[in-house]
Every structure is written in C-alpha cells, then in structure tokens.
Specification:
Strand order of the largest sheet: 1-4-5-3-2
Shape: globular
Strand content: 5-15%
Oligomer: single chain
Largest sheet: 5 strands, mixed
C-alpha cells in the first residue's frame, strides 16, 4: 500500500481539536462512473484535490469531464462495479475501525467521509484532513482480486494484497502512519525502525483484530513461518551489528514487503524485522501496564535506548 497525505498541518490541527466518535456510521460514497462523478460536486472536488488538480471552479469543471471520460475511469470503474457491486461489508468494517479508534487511538482525528473511486496512480489510499476530521479516498481498482488480469505483471506478493479484504486494513495503516509518523533523524538505526514498525503493528492488530497476519501486513504463510522462527531470527539480528545498521538496504530487506530472502538469510520471509518489532512492542506492553498502544507510537518509545531493556523481550 502507498498513501498520500494532504495536508500534514491540517492533521495536526485536527488532532488538537475535539475528537468525537459518536457517529460510527461513516458515509461511503461510490464514484466509479462519469455520471456519479458529475452528480457529486463535493466528491468530485475532493477527489480532484487528492489527485493534485488545480483548485478553482473552472478547473473543477474541466477536470470532472476529463477524468470522468478517462480510460482509467471507464475501464477500472466498470471492473470495480462488476467485481465489487456492493460495499456493504466494507462500510461495516470501516464503522468498526472507527469505533476501535476511540479506545486504541483516542488522540487521532475521527473519520468523516470515504469516497470509493478510481485512483489511476500507484497510491491505493489517499488521506485528506481538516479540523472536522479525516476524509479518505480509496481506489477500488487496487483491490479487484489477486487473479485480476490488470495485475498479471505484478509479483505474487503484491497480487496477494490486491483483494477487497485488504482495503480497510490499508486505510487503518494509512491513518496510523499519518497521524503518528516516524520522528527521527534522516538515518535511524534498524532497531529504531523495528520498534516504530512494531508500534504500528501493535496498534493495527487492535484496530483490526480478526487477522493478525493481515493487520501486520503479511500473508498467513509468511506470518506463521516468521512466528515459528522468532527466536532464531532474533539471534541472527542481535548476534551481529544489524540492529545498529542505518542503511536503507538493510531496513528495506527486513521491514518491507518483497520476495523471499533477506539480509539474514535466503530462507527468511520478508518483513522479519516488522514481526520482531511487533513482538518487542507486545512484550513492552505486557511488562509496562501503564503503557498504551498509542504511547508506543511516540519517539519516547522507539528512539529510547531503554526500550529494549524495559521490554524484557526474550523469545
């Protein structure tokens, strides 16, 4: 999943404002045809801004026509309507996510509106915010199923995440990473990044409790293999200088999705560092009852030299 955030300053303002969750039914508006786009001025304007178009009346009218008639809207909109004719389950999942945010991330701004549309770029989720909360634009064309012909050139690990079940999960991750971004210098250590990823994962498994593997961002098979090998993986990391490595290559190998094989072994699935970070975060929460998942998303957790000791992590 990739995301775009617009604008960061407004998010800070929204967080500082009064956060309310009394409305757990989040409006989901589907805009996958030229007619739907033209009949929703607010939705068209929001999507236009999210996709980077000029923000004035004349530009809006021109953009609505061009985008509504575009090949992306015509092809992907049609396919989205055919493959996902109903968004009832998605709407239900979003409502539950919103309710869970009240207890897990009480300082986060509330969700206000979701537009399910076509995003003709690599981003699958775009967040926009103001003092009223968060508006989300999700590209249905990014979740048409692992066997969808349009994804045939993608590697298997990417196709596995291109299903409707991942939509709400990707939205949850976008919210967590946007509201609580990694705050550090330009080159954090692998351990610091692992702790941040672990904190994100600890929040996600509580926001989306049905499937831990998916919440963290893994396939069930990779999750099971990494979980079984947790002790050995930690020994490989801790037994070398990897934890203090600051290179992007090491971080990418151990924290991001990808093909099998990492810097600690060809037999190790991707995101081994993310799972280990999550296990450290869970150990920390257990050893420090006053801590909360939201408090772990602060630099005082993931940048502290004391965190690993205070976590009492012993796989």
């Amino acid at each position: 999943m990739k995301l775009t955030t617009l604008p960061i300053a407004a998010l800070v303002t929204a967080i500082a404002s009064c956060t309310t969750y009394e409305n757990t039914e989040i409006p989901v508006e589907r805009i996958t045809t030229a007619e739907a786009l033209a009949s929703s001025p607010d939705g068209a304007h929001t999507i236009m801004r999210a996709l980077g178009a000029d923000d004035d009346t004349a530009a809006t009218q021109q953009w609505v026509y061009r985008f509504g008639q575009s090949e992306a809207m015509r092809i992907f909109g049609h396919d989205a309507d055919s493959i996902m004719p109903s968004l009832r389950q998605f709407s239900s999942d979003i409502g539950r996510l919103h309710r869970n945010m009240a207890s897990i991330l009480p300082d986060a701004p509330p969700l206000r509106q979701i537009y399910a549309t076509v995003i003709p770029y690599s981003q699958s989720v775009i967040l926009m915010s103001d003092t009223n909360g968060i508006t989300i634009i999700v590209g249905l064309n990014h979740y048409l199923g692992a066997d969808y012909e349009g994804y045939s050139s993608f590697p298997a690990y990417r196709r596995a995440r291109k299903t409707p079940e991942w939509m709400t999960r990707d939205i949850a991750e976008a919210i967590v990473r946007t509201v609580y971004p990694l705050e550090s210098d330009a080159h954090p250590t692998l351990l610091q990044r692992m702790l941040y990823e672990g904190a994100v994962a600890a929040a996600l498994v509580r926001l989306m409790p049905d499937n831990e593997a998916r919440a963290i961002g893994m396939t069930d098979d990779d999750f099971a293999q990494l979980y079984r090998s947790e002790k050995e993986i930690w020994q490989r990391m801790a037994g070398s200088d990897l934890l203090f490595d600051r290179s992007e290559r090491t971080a990418s190998s151990l924290l991001h999705e990808g093909s099998p094989g990492t810097v600690i072994g060809r037999d190790v699935p991707p995101m081994a560092g993310r799972l280990t970070g999550w296990r450290i975060a869970e150990s920390y929460l257990k050893a420090n009852p006053e801590a909360t998942p939201e408090s772990l998303l602060q630099p005082t957790f993931y940048l502290s030299d004391k965190t690993l000791r205070e976590a009492k992590y012993m796989p």
